[in-house]
Amino acid sequence: MTLTTSGRRATAAREAETPHALRAPAPRLSGRTALIGAAIGAAVVAALVTIDVFAPQLFSARLPNRLQDGLTLSLSVLFEALPFVILGVLLSIVVQVWLPAGVIERILPKRGWARRAVLSLLGMLIPVCECGNVPFARGLMMRGLGPAEALTFLMAAPIVNPIVILTTHAAFGFDGGILVARLVGGYLVANLIGWVYSRHPDPDALLTARFRDTCEVVVHEQGSGVRRSLAQFLIELRAVMPALIVGSALAGAVQVLVPRDVLLAIGSNPLLSVVAMIALAISVAICSNVDSFFALSFASTFSPGAIVAFLLVGPLVDIKMMALLRTTFTARTLAGIVGIVILFGFALGIGVNVFA
Fold first, then answer.
1. How many Å apart are CA 47 and CA 52, to the nearest integer?
2. Whole-prediction pTM value?
3. Which residues touch 200 (CB under 8 Å, ≥6 apart)?
4. Could you tell me the sign of the dihedral formed by the alpha carbons of 188, 162, 157, 96, in that order?
5. Between these two residues, 230 and 42, which has the higher pLDDT value?
């Protein structure tokens, strides 16, 4: 059974298949992976020490204080995202185990563009942040949804979301068109990414081998609903939690390494301010449910277009989100997604500055 088969055929194939030996689940983190993680940590510490020795004037705080701040920021990102990740895993289990076969296929339109248009509005019914959307999207793909369709949902849901809409309105109202630009931009870029990857000649190649193996295990999982739910809960946590921890740690390290004064110094330039806020959005890794209030603190020094770019790019391709996406999509796919989002966010930010 391939993931690229349409939802109707995928569900029918799963129901019709006779039981056979399960493929071995994805292996645990290897020693090589642990060494890579240790090397990254050592490189970050070395960078901090080097900067502290040769350019101490870039930072107002000393190295020990910055290390403590980095740890605090990493833990705050982790604990902020954790409840949403667990909620996303639970929703994923509902879709995979308890949702009757054929329900998703009957609800969604048959044409690809129409399916993606509907899926990009699904976030209105699932008010979780971007972290929880990843395991939920994995569950949708295990039920037969194509990678391009899952990507459309993943890119739209963190923005086209009732909580995000309310918090963005609470922070900015309708000033400068920030709220409207964020919603419209999020919807459009999600459907753009979905369309681009729907043209891929081999959609399965967009996914990691480990995720494809996980799909095989889940599809042929036997036993009661409770047993399958517990097994899937462990599978999803094993897949997502290491990425979330690494992403949170990198987010904290980047915030320590990048002097914010440098970003603020260029905030008044209509062009450079957009670039600066995109860079900040990728590094700070704030949940989309509350990032509007963080961006509000920059509203007096940065242009409206820069704020919009921050609010669009951050929930889709910040460091934490990229680590989570990497559990499912290949590095090449992820690079393409990041490129499209950054270019679209930059164009949208410039457009808002011109017309606002």
1. 8
2. 0.69
3. 147, 148, 206
4. negative
5. 230
For residue 351 the two structure tokens come to: 């457009």
Q: Are 164 and 158 in contact (CB under 8 A)?
A: yes
Strand partners, 329: 207
Q: Cα 272–285–158 angle (5° rounding)?
A: 95
SS3 call for 132:
helix
Return the DSSP state at 77: H
Which pLDDT tens digit goes with each residue over 185-234? 999 999 999 999 999 999 989 999 888 877 666 555 555 667 767 776 77
Q: HSE of 208 in the Cβ direction (CA atoms, 13 Å)?
A: 15
Alpha helices in the chain (DSSP H): 7-16, 31-54, 63-93, 103-107, 112-119, 130-142, 147-156, 162-172, 178-198, 209-219, 225-257, 260-265, 272-284, 291-296, 304-317, 319-325, 331-355
CA 72 distance to own-chain centroid: 22
Which two structure tokens, joined as six digits, stand for 76? 């705050």
Angle between helices 331-355 and 304-317 (to 10 degrees): 160
Burial class (CB in 10 A: 0-12, 13-18, 19+), 106: exposed
CA distances from 185 to 71, 238, 251 (A): 33, 33, 25
214-233 burial by CB neighbour count: b if 16+ within 10 A, else e?
bbebbbbbeeeeeebbebbb
Q: Is 173 left (phi over 0), alpha (psi -120 to 50) or beta?
A: left
End-to-end Cα spacing for the chain: 50
Is the CB of residue 161 less than 8 Å from the CB of residue 123?
yes
State the Cα–Cα distance between residues 45 and 306, nearest whole angstrom.
31
Distance CA 74, CA 77 (A): 5
Cα 230 to chain centroid, rounded:
24
Q: Which residue, among 227, 206, 222, 232, has the nearest Cα to 93 in the 3D structure?
A: 232
